[in-house]
Design brief:
Rossmann fold, 6-stranded parallel β-sheet, 7 helices, 6 strands
Length: about 180
């Protein structure tokens, strides 16, 4: 009986370590609970890049090398998640601090274009974009220059794309540069 217990314990330990080694190098989350992060997840899958997707990722769950934060505020999405704008900002602030403390690279993306802009999204932009090492913004998403101004002030490179499908090129280039995707 004792040998069976040891065997079960050894199997559990092995499974725990195997699961940890299978974790992706990339974490993907939303800033504002719009469906835009899910669209980026689809782009990543088409690129053959795995990401741990959690639209409500908490700081204590972050263990990856790269954090991709897709910015787009949605009152409906926040409501469905059972949180408000202030709770989302607190979550993002803590997550960004944790990622920075762990030396992770942060990529901020805005793929919703003009339609996903407004006062709510702007609040998430001002929280997330300054922490990014790079930004990807689709056409129409920066007509007011909010991303350009943050990028200029913080010296953050901004890559453009015509639409959400068009982010595949810049996204792959960044992830290749950061060592988590291949050419």
């Amino acid at each position: 009986m004792a040998s069976i217990r040891k065997l079960i314990l050894a199997a559990c330990v092995l499974l725990c370590f195997a699961g940890a080694s299978l974790a992706a190098d990339i974490a993907l989350t939303s800033a504002g609970q719009s469906p835009d992060a899910m669209m980026v997840r689809v782009v990543l899958k088409k690129l053959g890049v795995e990401a741990d997707y959690d639209p409500l990722m908490k700081p204590e769950a972050f263990t990856q090398k790269i954090l991709i934060v897709v910015i787009g505020g949605s009152s409906k999405g926040l409501g469905a998640a059972g949180i408000d704008k202030d709770q989302e900002i607190a979550r993002l602030t803590a997550l960004l601090e944790t990622a920075s403390e762990k030396g992770a690279k942060i990529l901020a993306m805005h793929v919703g274009g003009e339609g996903r802009r407004g006062k709510l999204s702007d609040e998430f932009i001002t929280v997330v974009a300054p922490s990014a090492a790079k930004l990807i913004v689709v056409d129409g998403g920066d007509a007011d220059g909010i991303f350009a101004n943050i990028a200029k002030e913080k010296k953050i490179p901004v890559l453009g794309a015509p639409n959400v499908s068009g982010v595949a090129g810049p996204l792959k280039a960044i992830l290749t540069e950061w060592g988590v995707a291949t050419k």
